[in-house]
Design goal:
Largest sheet: 5 strands, antiparallel
CATH class of the largest domain: Mainly Alpha
Number of strands: 11
Distance between the termini: 25 Å
Order of helices and strands: HEEEEEEHEEEHHHHHEE
Number of helices: 7
Strand order of the largest sheet: 2-1-7-8-6
Length: 271
């Protein structure tokens, strides 16, 4: 699933293509062609966590969540077929070209005044890509009684605690902090919980650039990884040697969503 930095980078690429342009066609899966929005100017493209928000005119927003399989495709002007529209989750066409979203989990057109009340957005915790993150709020959400028995791996993926971390960053953050993915929230100090999310914010910000995501050397090598250069500490590295201690990297499904967690049993203690 795309994580917060992926969506933020997508918004950065789309702004010069769409902002200031007038809509010539809008298709949304649940509504079909939306003729009422033709002629609206695309005034802004924002993100909140893993949600992409495209503002149309003064009063409407197209909210897109790519989910696990969503992808975005650009079309040249006047080349969008009816099949492309019908196959898309959402599609916006302007005189300059079109942007189609395919296989996304959610796409919804909603009045801007209703946006904050939307269940999908209202429940989100602080966005870790904001300039100033309220980590006390993050901690309070993490300390909710219903999360006491949760594992740290589950906690980091809960967008209601903090928005932006996905499965890649989950494993990387826990490794970099030397934290056991199966340690319970109630057995973890406030300082340690805050440190996990602070590192998450740091890594997300470090990857707001073109090229592949990296966590290895994100401070000393801020450029996109070069061919053959290590990018990630543990994610996707099952049975490969840990970059710190050379022990084999382990992996196991975790939590109700059965997302795969990668960790080093030596550096993060046995679990």
């Amino acid at each position: 699933m795309p994580e917060g930095d992926t969506i933020h980078n997508l918004a950065t690429r789309l702004r010069p293509l769409l902002c200031g342009e007038q809509v010539t066609k809008l298709w949304v899966r649940e509504r079909g062609a939306v003729a009422a929005r033709v002629g609206d100017e695309i005034t802004d493209i924002e993100t909140k966590g893993k949600h992409l928000l495209v503002t149309l005119g003064e009063g409407w927003v197209l909210r897109v969540h790519l989910g696990m399989k969503g992808r975005v495709r650009r079309f040249a002007a006047e080349t969008v077929s009816d099949h492309a529209c019908f196959a898309s989750t959402a599609l916006i066409e302007t005189a300059r070209g079109a942007i189609g979203v395919f296989d996304a989990a959610q796409a919804e057109l909603t009045p801007r005044r209703w946006l904050r009340a939307q269940r999908q957005l209202a429940s989100l915790g602080p966005d870790l890509l904001c300039r100033h993150v309220d980590y006390d709020d993050v901690l309070n959400r993490a300390r909710a009684p219903e999360r006491a028995e949760w594992t740290l791996g589950e906690l980091l993926l809960d967008q209601r605690v903090a928005a932006g971390i996905g499965n890649v960053y989950k494993s990387e953050i826990l490794f970099m902090q030397g934290a056991n993915p199966w340690q319970r929230v109630q057995d973890t100090s406030d300082a340690s919980i805050k440190a996990l999310f602070e590192l998450g914010s740091e890594l997300l910000h470090a990857n707001l650039r073109p090229g592949s995501r990296r966590t290895v050397g994100h401070k000393t090598r801020p450029h996109a990884p070069l061919p053959g250069e290590d990018r990630l500490w543990v994610y996707g590295q099952t049975r490969r040697g840990c970059l710190k201690c050379h022990s084999p990297i382990s992996s196991r499904r975790q939590g109700p969503q059965a997302r795969t967690t990668y960790w080093c049993r030596n550096c993060q203690s046995d679990a």
